[in-house]
Amino acid sequence: MSDEHPPQPKAFPVSWDQFHRDARALAWRLSGQGEWEAIVCITRGGLVPAAIVARELGIRVIETVGVASYHEYKEQGSLVVLKGVDPKITALGGGEGKGVLIIDDLVDTGSTARIVREMLPKAHFATVYAKPKGRPLVDTFITEVSQDTWIYFPWDMGLTFQPPISKGTLG
Ligand SMILES: O=P(O)(O)OC[C@H]1O[C@H](OP(=O)(O)OP(=O)(O)O)[C@H](O)[C@@H]1O
Ligand SMILES: O=c1[nH]c(=O)c2nc[nH]c2[nH]1
Ligand SMILES: [Mg+2]
């Protein structure tokens, strides 16, 4: 989390099973919307849904775009493009990424989506989850959560012991 993503009061933990179901639902929704020549996934969070969507839709041309955010690189709040899109992909469908599917795990403030959309203005942008601020930047998504919710993805979590309710802090 960062200045742009302050600690969120609500938690939305997602299991592998749930994520697979939601990513597959995204593939179903996309399947009715045209033929896709290639996927551009936004690393790293977009890698997992991109694999699932590519499998479901039979897409084998898969490119990455690397955008790192916030405190990890350079000054806080800025986004850094670590890897751009291959010009061969940008040129598809007569240019500007027509027929390309951009995939990410979620859109939050929309900053990442805005940068990648500028690279491929005619591409279709799809995410599994969306928060209200970023929603206008996404063409297709599956589940919306409120802006004050933090989504916990399965690749960021592990199994931990849970104390019995009777020994917990509640009540
Ligand atoms: O809409 P925004 O406010 O830009 O936030 C959404 C982005 O933030 C997360 O990626 P992050 O940059 O944390 O890197 P990661 O994918 O490598 O985890 C997420 O995977 C999206 O790409
Ligand atoms: O794991 C994450 N959960 C989120 O809700 C989020 N928003 C931006 N980046 C995020 N990463
Ligand atoms: Mg990301």
UniProtKB/TrEMBL annotation:
Domain spans labelled Phosphoribosyltransferase: 15-161
Residues that bind xanthine: 108, 151
GO biological process: GMP salvage; purine ribonucleoside salvage; XMP salvage
Keywords: Cell membrane, Glycosyltransferase, Magnesium, Membrane, Metal-binding, Purine salvage, Transferase
Reactions the enzyme catalyzes: GMP + diphosphate = guanine + 5-phospho-alpha-D-ribose 1-diphosphate; IMP + diphosphate = hypoxanthine + 5-phospho-alpha-D-ribose 1-diphosphate; XMP + diphosphate = xanthine + 5-phospho-alpha-D-ribose 1-diphosphate
MF terms in GO: guanine phosphoribosyltransferase activity; hypoxanthine phosphoribosyltransferase activity; magnesium ion binding; xanthine phosphoribosyltransferase activity
Binding site residues for guanine: 108, 151
Co-factor(s): Mg(2+)
A GO CC annotation given for this chain: plasma membrane
Enzyme class label: transferase
Domain of life: Bacteria
Annotated metabolic or biological route of this protein: Purine metabolism; GMP biosynthesis via salvage pathway; GMP from guanine: step 1/1; Purine metabolism; XMP biosynthesis via salvage pathway; XMP from xanthine: step 1/1
Protein topology in the membrane: Peripheral membrane protein
E.C. designation(s): 2.4.2.22
Chain positions recorded as Mg(2+) binding sites: 105
Location in or out of the cell: Cell membrane
A Pfam family recorded for this sequence: Pribosyltran
Purpose of the protein: Purine salvage pathway enzyme that catalyzes the transfer of the ribosyl-5-phosphate group from 5-phospho-alpha-D-ribose 1-diphosphate (PRPP) to the N9 position of the 6-oxopurines guanine and xanthine to form the corresponding ribonucleotides GMP (guanosine 5'-monophosphate) and XMP (xanthosine 5'-monophosphate), with the release of PPi. To a lesser extent, also acts on hypoxanthine.
Subunit structure: Homotetramer.
Entry protein name: Xanthine-guanine phosphoribosyltransferase
